[in-house]
Amino acid sequence: MSITKAEKDLHLPLSRVKTIMKSSPEVDAVGPEPLHLVTKVTELFVIDLAKRAYKNTKGNMLEYKHIAEVVQEDDTLDFLREIMPRKITVRQYKELMARKAARGDRSDDESSEESSEGESSEESSSGVEIIE
Fold it and tell me: What are the C-alpha distances in Å from 118 to residues 19, 86, 123?
């Protein structure tokens, strides 16, 4: 398998990008030009996101929280908000739920129904991921 100059300019593996593109039910075949274009644009997007997140660092280390913060603050990145939520500790989550309960936003009947559905809906709606 020979590697062309165009492929040398890319950092993401073309085969993986092609697999992801073909996983969409609307896509039957992927030509070499669109594959190269999507791969290059994806790389540029990741570079831009990383650079924007790096501006929020205080040192020289980029962490998940920096990227998640950019995603949460930029409305153009709202498609990533469920994938990259802000992380909070269990203590912060419990405090958040206690404040919510103290406000009495819901009636007792609604609260008991929602708690039986599970807390995953609360996690996704608040845009946070709980860490211990």
Answer: 34, 20, 10
Spatial separation of the C-alpha atoms in residues 126 and 34, rounded to whole Å: 37
Q: Are 75 and 62 in contact (CB under 8 A)?
A: no
Which token pair is 4?
């062309």
Q: Tell me the whole-structure pTM to 2 decimals.
A: 0.62
Residue 117: the pLDDT is: 41
Tell which residue, 92, 88, 85, has the closest CA to residue 70: 85
Query: What SS3 state is found at 87?
Result: strand
- What angle is formed at CA 31 by the lines to CA 28 and CA 32, rounded to 5 degrees? 150
Q: How far apart are CA 62 and CA 131, in angstroms?
A: 18
Farthest CA pair distance, the chain = 66
**Calpha distance 101→59 (Å, rounded):** 38
State the average pLDDT over residues 100-119.
Answer: 56
Structure tokens at 60: 């020289």
Q: Kindly state the tokens that stand for 63.
A: 């962490």
